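ingest -> validate -> predict -> emit
validate: passed (alphabet ok, no gaps, 483 aa)
predict: started
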Amino acid sequence: MKKGDIVEGKIERVTFPNKGHLRADDRDVIVKNTIPGQNVRARINKKKAGRLEAQLLEVIEHSPLEKRPPLCRNFPACGGCLYQTMEYADQLKLKENEIRDLLAPAITLNPPAGNERGILQEPSDCSCGADGIFEGILPSPDESGYRNKMEYAFGNAVKDGPLTLGLHRKNSTYDILTADDCILVHPDFNAIVKCVLDFFRERGIPHFHKVTHEGWLRHLLVRRAAKTGEILVDLVTTSQDLPDGETENEVLCAFSKRLQELVLEGSIVGILHTVNDSVADVIRNDRTDLLYGRDYFFEQLLGLSFRITPFSFFQTNTRGAEVLYRTAIDFLGDVSGKTVFDLYTGTGTIAQVLAPVAKKVVGVEIVEEAVGAARENAAANGLTNCSFIAGDVLKVLDGLTEKPDVIVLDPPRDGIHPKALPKIIAYGVDRIVYISCKPTSLARDLEVFREGGYRIERIRCVDLFVNTQHTEVVTLLQKNSGL
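emit:
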């Protein structure tokens, strides 16, 4: 087989991250974004070192696991909710199996633990249950409407077509599908998308074109607190001139007024305008102006209040995050009288949850805005034993003289910087809890921890991303005795 060849076959199994495997000409072909049991047609697009990968062209026959109809009109073109035709119980089982198989080699190579748990001899021994290292997967409390943040793009679904506002078409750089019936978000999101799209269609204001770099509209950022119902709306545009007829100030005033008139279940507490003149297709903050209200909203999590700004990190599934952090706290065990390092702390959520029982918590985060929010949140929650440092973990650890008793790691998707790992291991703490949103990065980092004298004690998945292929994984690492 060669690049460009068309193959057909049944997806026999799926490995993380969502790589379907079919047999064609007695060869294993990987087809991403597929479900076990589907019969598919795909085109070979990569052939490297004997490995074949193909792009999905068509699902010829659906999987027996697909027991319900699509839940939005953009499925499957959007690609955001790959598993939405599966019952949630089946989604959880599929995710659990993928992560268990991915991490089985790391568990199998676990160093001996004296008279404690022995080594798992075979990957198949990584079973769920109180006596196993792999403890299965916990479901999200909400199966729909759980996302508290969405970044929508302006564009069109076809070249020179009408203005759209939503998400990228699967495997497309340019096509944007209007997402005003998305099941991942609260209905308030969909109402806002429809309102904003109608507003700019009426005025004929163009979107930013990625090829010509001309146009005004770029993105719409919406954040909504699950507990308080407070909403922030941020319109992201270029600084280019608008078409003749209205000034930028007139358009922004009318835009803000239209949103304020919208009837929602929650309440819009802030409307902002961010200027982004970067040619890259990302939301960059060159300047942000407040059009209405305030530039933050409040959310509640595990009994604490958090002040969240437009670009600060906060878990996208609030109620799911409570399950995630309870798992991390359970894994950490008793931290009374101990100093905790919370590395990659974001807005300091875990740090503040641990602070009431710990002696001291030190959070490190590279995003300065998030650190500012963490400090304000800790003060508002009456926590005096939390401190937060703005900077890269790799560099900050060199300047810290204080030593931790336990460490919490919640790094970005790419995992921990390879040069930071030895510094973390050098502290020699008894327990490390690693929260991962990208299990392949976790698997890579676990090998380094194993070589550094740590063994895996517990692993548990927590699903924060219903209907998608993503999940969080919490791992407890224990220092080997005598090391």
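Residues 115-131 have pLDDT under 50 and may be disordered.
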